[in-house]
Amino acid sequence: MSVSTPRAEKPVASPHAPGAAARRRDGRPRRGVKPSRILLVALLTVAALYFLLPVYWLLVASTKSSADLFGTFGLWFSDPQWPHNLSNVFSYDDGVFWSWTWNSVLYAGVGGTLATLLAGAAGYALAVYRFRGREAVFKAVLAGVLLPSTALALPMYLLFSKVGLANTYWAVLIPSMVSPFGVYLCRIYAEAAVPTEMLEAARVDGAGEWRIFGTLVLRTMTPALVTVFLFQFVGIWNNYFLPLVMLSDDRKYPITLGLTTWQTAADRTPELYQLTVGGAFVSVLPLAAAMLVLQRYWRSGLTQGSVKG
Amino acid sequence: MSTETTRTTTSAPGSRRSARPDRAAWGFLLPFVALFLLTFVLPLGYAVYQSLLTPVRSGPLGLGPATLGFAGLDNYALALEQSAFLESFARVLLFGLVQIPVMLLLSTTLALALDTLSHRWAGILRAAYFLPYGIPGVIASILWGFLYVPGVSPIVDLLGKAGLAPDFLGYGNVLWSIANIVIWEFAGYNMLVIVAQLKAIPQELYEAARIDGASAWQTAVRIKLPLARPALVLTGVFSIIGTLQLFVEPLVIKPLTSAVTSSYTPNLSAYNEAFANNNIYLAAAESVILALAASVLSFGFLSLVNRKERRDAR
């Protein structure tokens, strides 16, 4: 029996619009500057000021002493004492800020990675296999996307405290590993980007389903996985309600929760105003930097979700 | 067997051999599905169950130990009788009716405007607009809180010098000051979703419009805007769900003003029932009402949009 196997050719369904990159978009002829053009630039500039001003204020405020924070004009420097302020942030209360930072990295890093792998596997299964219960699972996933997560956090806390999981790292990590929206994105991407021929060829070559997934599929799905990871990482890093409900030990807090304890205590301990501002500044830095570097990946991955969705 | 049949089996995924792939499919799904059951289905079921219970006092004068009794829909009736809880719903609805359109209008305008710029400038500005998304809602609220409080805020300072006395935290204004925080956080993110959609449109379409003599404005409104529709629907749904869950922003602003109460939003209300008043059964009922309202509104929005789409297609 001679079967000519259809070899995996180039990925059949390339999700990117062909030729889009080749065309230049800014090569239009220049006419005189029109009033509408000036209006447009003015609008964009005002918008930039709006989005950047609070961040700039934070930068300036983080260099000031507590007294200057209240006594001097907020948008200009006055007697900058950055090293002093930042070392205060990290040394206050036996360096609790270090714990918060580490916890945030742990929750977002581990939770984001596992959520991405689970979503990738589930999305791939929903896209490629036809099996009974497939539609039901996908509908449940869609319902999960639309359910407000905060409505679930309270009952989840009650359940977790019954089995002794409340106020542990797991209480934040377990819910962070589930991303219905990630499954949705991965399914759409896998449908477009994983060629059936490639899977058949690998099967004929004797590769098991898990090996195919681990070697071929994960590589093909990388853009979608990067997007899902970023979504989930930012989502967990910014999450407040879940840790607020689940945790009572402030050494397990992420940065978001920790900073609000400083902010609310600042009424009685005014030095905490400066620490809140300094801590906010420090915590904004890593994510803002990641945001600027990674927005390119983010964009190309997102396209898959919104076009077909 | 010929090449021909091989090809038909591969191109029709419905006819895949069953047993092995079937098991493999569930193998891939299992970790996600198990955790999904644990963190979505089970809590939802538990919330519904708890919402039907109430502590019943036993013994003379009701001083004996409390046992749990079936309460029927009493907790729901109790939640809906509280005017503060109903007001909180009315508040977030009003909030959403104003904040979501303003934000999406801003996001769309920025996306369309950036699309007409040269590549380099568009990149820099896009990054600037997107930056707030990387800042946690808590920190954004702390930040804007400082910018609202007279004495620290340079904005109040400058407006004061101009002869104005804005009261960002007053009773009438604080809801819109919170709306401003939410817009600041998410306008850039929504803009990026729309930009992604615009980038997926074949460039030939723009070329054709330009050859036909369409102005930049006409291209934006007649071609780009309709094609960006799926992105607008997506951001619309997520904004509706987000608005109903409003929690962090009012919680952080609360110490700064008496205008924000402990039942300012449905979520704050449920949180306070559970942790301040220790009434987890009422809190469960409020959570279920919140989840119901969110699904009714988001499904309603989606079917409205779909119906309109079908009508437009005809």
Automatic annotation (TrEMBL), chain B:
- What subcellular locations does the record give? Cell membrane
Which InterPro entries has this protein been placed in?
Answer: MetI-like, MetI-like_sf, UgpAE/MalFG_permease
User: Which superkingdom heads the taxonomic lineage of this protein's source?
Assistant: Bacteria
Keyword Magnesium among UniProt keywords: no
How does the protein's chain sit in the membrane according to the entry?
Answer: Multi-pass membrane protein
Q: Which family does it belong to?
A: Belongs to the binding-protein-dependent transport system permease family.
The molecule here is called Sugar ABC transporter permease
